[in-house]
Amino acid sequence: MTFRLTGARWLAIAAVTALSTLSLSGPAHADDSSAPPSGEVTLDVQTVNGSGCPAGSAWASMQPDNTGFRINYSAFRAADGGSANPTDVRKNCQVNLLVHIPQGFTYAIARADYWGRAHLEPGATALERTNYYLQGSSNNTYADHYFSGPFDGSFRTTDITAATALVWAPCGVTRSLNVNTELRVDAGSSSHTSSISLRASDGDVYTLVQFQWRQC
Questions:
Q1: Residue 117 φ/ψ region, left for φ over 0, alpha for ψ in the -120 to 50 degree band, beta for the rest
Q2: pLDDT, mean over the chain
Q3: pLDDT value for 33
Q4: How many Cβ atoms are within 10 Å of 208's Cβ, its own excluded?
Q5: What's the confidence (pLDDT) of residue 200?
């Protein structure tokens, strides 16, 4: 398995930060800087599916200031080489949420930050890919972050959507929001195990998704 470089950065230092800008089609709006609503915003996790998140191993919670939400995983890890199973090479997890917001507001996904860990032997590569989409929307673009060994430590990646490309939830309608994340590893010629992880047991590891708010 070889990962193709398509404009994202290759990362090969002990602690790294990578940035990716999502290019999504969506309407521009004159007032895209509204403060979060002061009323209660709640999340309902509808489904959690994928080889990287067995039942009960992923959960989401709103930030207290209504700026976004946090996803934690307890089993999300991909690995290749050494003692890894062939099915460990690619893992994915899709979290389907209902976001309940006060009347008169709508939201878009403006940014997402991922904190994780990786161990990559020399010549090994890894990929973290995520896409975000609303139920019924044709906008389903993904952001990629690539890593190459030797690498052993923590990483942070960031996906940012340009203000003119924000995809807004329809006003007055509750639609499911999907966050679909994939991890892949290719051990290359190494006989030792390489891995990439978003599981909480590996330290301060989680995903933070941030909203942009506006009034309808």
A1: beta
A2: 84
A3: 56
A4: 16
A5: 86
146/63 Cα distance (integer angstroms): 28
> What residue type is assigned to position 198 of the chain?
L
Which residue numbers in the chain have pLDDT < 50?
1-18, 20-32
Nearest Cα to Cα of residue 79 among 45, 119, 27, 43? 119
Per DSSP bridges, beta strands 142-148 and 77-80 are: unpaired
Task: Give the whole-angstrom CA distance, residue 157 versus residue 86.
Answer: 26
Q: In the prediction, which pLDDT does 17 show?
A: 43
Cis status of the peptide bond prior to 36, with omega within 30 of 0: no
Helices (H), the chain: none
Between strands 16-22 and 151-161, the pairing is parallel
Q: Which tokens belong to 40?
A: 């209660």
- What per-residue confidence (pLDDT) applies to 140? 66
In angstroms, the CA 185 to CA 193 distance is 10
How confident is the model at residue 148, as a pLDDT?
96
Is residue 176 a contact partner of residue 37, using CB atoms and an 8 Å limit? no
Side chain identity at residue 37, one-letter code: P
d(CA 159, CA 122): 27
**Contact at 8 Å (CB) between 35 and 107?**
no
